Amino acid sequence: MVNKARDYLRSTIRRLDTLSSNECAAPNCGRQLVARDGLSIISKICHIEAASPDGPRFNPHMTDDERRHYNNLILLCDECHTVIDNPSNEDLYPVSILKEWKQIHEIKAKSKVLKQPRILNQAINSIADLSFGEYYSDNSSFDSLDFQIDDKIEYNFLHRNREVIKDHAVYYPRINRLYEELEFQGSFKKQKLLMIIYQIYLKIKGRYPENGRREKGDDIFEAIENEIITKIEESESHPDDVDLAIPIILVDAFMRCKILEKPQYDLK
User: Taking the domains of the chain in order of start, what are their residue ranges?
Assistant: First the structure.
């Protein structure tokens, strides 16, 4: 039986690969994660806080979903993985150090990839080109931000994906400009894209009983991302690095209330 803490989502693996820039995340290492034949994968998925009680840096208060989540994983070469997981070295490589490695490596990778406007454009077009049968709309506004992001995060019990949403919310104006530019060119329909995401959300949330569904916010958010990445991979064209931009598009949809529930304020 597969240990759930090692049962990684496809979207998680894709994001790790994309943000690795084909380099070990350990500072001053620089080893490539694909062998010289250009085919063999020599990277190792390392848990920052161990997948099992007998592993290094194990946190008994984490769930298996948290242990397998992107936030708790770092991609390293085989040697660095072996070194940091050696029990004799555990004090040299605490959780705080590994999280710092991950953050620094991610910032460098994101700045290199996302400065290319084509990445966001490709992600937008890839989602808009997906086929999900009949499209339908609701009466809610697409662009009304009449709530606080923190309130919606709390209302939907988001924990694992809090950082992703907070980090990517800053892209909202940029995504809005891209939507406007593509609409002006006549080659894109924003409403269609948002309705595709909304339709996927309805499909995913329908897997959970209505009573207590809101408490599954993290599971639903991750399942939507995984579904979209899977569908894009199955399509005829899967642009390079597009997976990195998918969470940005999803967070934008989250802010437009196409994903998860809008917080209910007491107006009395």
Answer: 4-112, 116-255
